[in-house]
């Protein structure tokens, strides 16, 4: 009877260890994805937009990326628009076209910096 309990405890331990290792790998991959997204935005957008969690946009007409509405980032079409060529109604903003992987990294980073929703 005692051997059975030991086997069960070992199985639980291995399961918890496996889950912990997988979670750590996932968190590391997510952080790397967000870093690459931030790097792209730094190169392409930081001349006009604040791309971090703080700071003002260099161009006062360009919204800081941390203030994007959640609906914009979670919109099912947003990723596709980034891939098709995202453009703005603002005439001085260039059109950017991302491949699928780059678009996913940009969106992952943008989601990570959003300000908390303000109570209504």
From TrEMBL:
Protein name (Swiss-Prot/TrEMBL): C-type cytochrome
Source species taxonomy: Bacteria, Pseudomonadati, Pseudomonadota, Alphaproteobacteria, Hyphomicrobiales
Keywords: Heme, Iron, Metal-binding
Family matches, as InterPro entries: Cyt_c-like_dom, Cyt_c-like_dom_sf
Pfam family, one: Cytochrom_C
Boundaries of every Cytochrome c domain copy: 32-114
Domain of life per record: Bacteria
MF terms (GO), sorted A to Z: electron transfer activity; heme binding; metal ion binding
Protein source organism: Bradyrhizobium quebecense
